[in-house]
Structures are given as structure tokens and as C-alpha cells.
Design goal:
alpha+beta; 5 helices; five-stranded antiparallel β-sheet; about 170 residues
């Protein structure tokens, strides 16, 4: 899907149109309390501070990030958002969530399965994400990010993908 987005004018245009139609110039919260003064103050702070400082890299406004997040989610199927202690958001694109061994599925130090970089409990609940910090043809170095620290938006239109993966890799018990 990335190759289509980057090298096919029709595929890229379809994603552009979806982003324009759904996100537009960005989704903006509107304060609707009984206090008009508080509403004005909250909205002014949003536009003057948060919108311009949301990106951990300091490159994109929150409106720009929303467009990029939606596009990445539609193109790749999932995307992660990590809230930093600074209050900024670090975007984790799905291709950076990888099994630490560089391929295949494995077990974590905690004895849990890691499937496509997502460490899961026996019930299939994400416990942690392994985010690549450097990659080569032979290895992947990653940082383990606990699931409670990362908001992971994924294609959730199946009832239990992880159970199916357990069956496929022979780890299910019936």
C-alpha cells in the first residue's frame, strides 16, 4: 500500500481525497460550557499553544498530524501514538513495530508471544510494543514500550486476530 501511495497517482489521489473528506483542515474541539469566557480562553489556548506544539519533532501542527495520522492508518492499517512527558506526541508508524529478532514470531523475556512486534498475553491482549530504533538487514534493535503508554489504532474489524495467529503458529490449545 505504501508503494501505491508513493508511486501511483490514482492510489495516492484516493488517499488524498479520503483525508480531505474526513479530516479536512483538522478536527478542532469546541468548548461548550456555560461560561463564554472560559470557552474563549480554552479555544485560544488550543490554537495558540497545543496546536503548534503537539508534534514531538516540532515540525507539524496538530491539524497536520491529524491528516498524517488518518492517512497512515488508512494506508498501513495501524498507527501508534506515544504521549511524552513533555506533553507532545510521538508518532509510531506501523513499520517500526517489529519483532526484536528482525523477523518471525518469538517469545519475550517475560515468556509472552511477540507477533509482528506486538507482545501479547495468553488471551491475545497487547502487553507491549517493540519499536525499532535501528534496523539493518541482519538485525533490529528495539525499545519495549508497555501497552498502557502507547495508543495503538489498528484495523479492528475481526473478532480475534491474535487467536487466529496462535492457531497458525501452532500455539493454540483446544
Amino acid at each position: 500500500s505504501r508503494q501505491i501511495d508513493e508511486g501511483n497517482i490514482l492510489g495516492s489521489s484516493l488517499l488524498d481525497r479520503a483525508v480531505d473528506n474526513i479530516i479536512g483542515e483538522g478536527m478542532v474541539p469546541q468548548a461548550l460550557t456555560k461560561s463564554a469566557k472560559w470557552n474563549d480562553t480554552a479555544e485560544t489556548l488550543w490554537w495558540s499553544e497545543f496546536d503548534k506544539q503537539a508534534d514531538a519533532r516540532g515540525l507539524d501542527s496538530l491539524s497536520d498530524l491529524q491528516r498524517k495520522w488518518y492517512r497512515a492508518k488508512k494506508r498501513d492499517g495501524d498507527i501508534g501514538l506515544l504521549l511524552l512527558t513533555s506533553g507532545r506526541v510521538q508518532t509510531i508508524e506501523s513499520d517500526y513495530v517489529q519483532t526484536p529478532t528482525g523477523g518471525g514470531d518469538t517469545r519475550s523475556a517475560q515468556g509472552l508471544d511477540i507477533i509482528d512486534g506486538v507482545e501479547i498475553s495468553a488471551a491475545g491482549r497487547p502487553v507491549a510494543f517493540h519499536v525499532a530504533t535501528s534496523m539493518s538487514l541482519l538485525s533490529v534493535k528495539s525499545t519495549r514500550v508497555p501497552a498502557q503508554d502507547l495508543i495503538w489504532f489498528f484495523e479492528n474489524n475481526r473478532l480475534d486476530r491474535t487467536a487466529i495467529m496462535h492457531v497458525l503458529i501452532g500455539k493454540a490449545s483446544f
